[in-house]
Structure formats: structure tokens, C-alpha cells
Amino acid sequence: MVVKHTTAKGRKVTLKMAQKALEGRRRLDLSNLGIATFPKCLLKIAAVDELDLSRNTLQKLPEDLGDLAGLSRLDLQSNKLEALPQAMGRLVGLTHLNLSNNRLRSPPLLPDSLGLLVRLQSLNLGLNRLDRLPPSTAALTGLQNLGLFDNLFTELPAFLTAASLCETCLHRHEQERDPLKRNTRRDVRGGAEDNRKRIYSGLTTPNSVAAANQDAWRRRR
């Protein structure tokens, strides 16, 4: 897709352009186009399953975003987002949400409505400025990947107990908090994780969703 119109507020995406960018009428890729304002024309496109707005310059999202309730994947990595609207909680079909490499901070805290996204399997919040998560995120029991790397956490959120970590990530987290443990090695023994319900491999290191573009798109803070 070629976007011809550029303004001081970034490139403008029209409904016609967006429709041409649809892949198989299900996936809409508008990444890396210099978009600074969320294109509200997207709200007129029905049955979009995946929306990629990564690597743009978005600073905020409209409450109307919640109208895209059919989305299962939403990629907003590498923008300039500082906060999220409560309307995020209306995207109840989401299974994958990538918010890495933005400017999200606490305060303002992420919206409590995030806990309504109970179908989420992957949530990437790495490369932001967060030091806590809303308590409602404890309701996201379906998560398989949770990225919190490169934020401002001094301790893990309360609902993330040691049982939520793989042995490697737990060891790394302990090393970061206590330098005296850097020479201590944990053995990963067979059967040790049998009773763990949730294992988050992206807490302290990038998961596969963000790793490919981390070096190219990380913004200095």
C-alpha cells in the first residue's frame, strides 16, 4: 500500500487505503507508515481479525477502539503510547496483545479493564516504564506468555508467585535483585514444574513476539 498524503500530524490513512491493505479480508497491516493519529476509518471495516499498527508514532488510542471487538490479535509495539483507554477491556476476543516498546508508565496505571481480556494468551508489555500492574491482571489466567522485560519493576506483581516462573527466569530475576546470588546456580530437575499452572518465559527477557524488532525499534528513554 502506498500512502500519498502526509501532514504534520503524520500520514493519513483513508478507508479506501485500509481496504486495499487487507490481507485475505482478515489481516490488516498498517505497520511502519508514520501514522500519528489512530485512523478512525478502521472502525468501518468489519470482520478484521488481526490489526498491525506497530512501528508508527501513535500517542493515544480512542475509546472507539473498543468497537473492534472481533480482533484476536492487536500489535501496537514501537509507538509512543503513554496510556491506554478503558475501552481496551471491550476487545474481549483478543488472544495476542503486543504493547512493547512504548511509553506506558505507572502512574497512570494500566486500565483495570485489562483484566476483562480473559482470552489473552500472550501479553507483551516489555520496553516500557511500568513499575506495577493493575490487580485485575490476575484474572488473565489463560496467559502463556507475559513480557515485562526492561521496565521499572523493583519487585514482581503480587499475583506472579515463584510458581509462575520457569526456573531459568526465576534465577535471572533473583540475580537482578540480589547481586550476591549471581554466582549461585539453580539446577532444573525433571518433574519440578509438573504442578505449575502458569509459566511466563518473557518476564525478564524478550519473548519471540518482540525479539525480532527490539534492537531496530527500541527508543532511548
TrEMBL record:
Q: Which SUPFAM superfamilies match?
A: L domain-like (SSF52058)
Which SMART domains has this protein been placed in? Answer: LRR_TYP
Q: Which UniProt keywords apply?
A: Leucine-rich repeat, Repeat
Q: What is this protein called?
A: Leucine-rich repeat-containing protein 18
Compositionally skewed regions (Polar residues) per UniProt? 202-211
Q: Which organism is it from?
A: Muraenolepis orangiensis (Patagonian moray cod)
User: Compositionally biased, Basic and acidic residues: which spans?
Assistant: 174-197
Superkingdom as given in the UniProt entry = Eukaryota
Region: Disordered, residue numbers: 174-221
Q: Which GO terms describe its cellular component?
A: cytoplasm
Q: In its keyword annotation, does this UniProt entry include Repeat?
A: yes
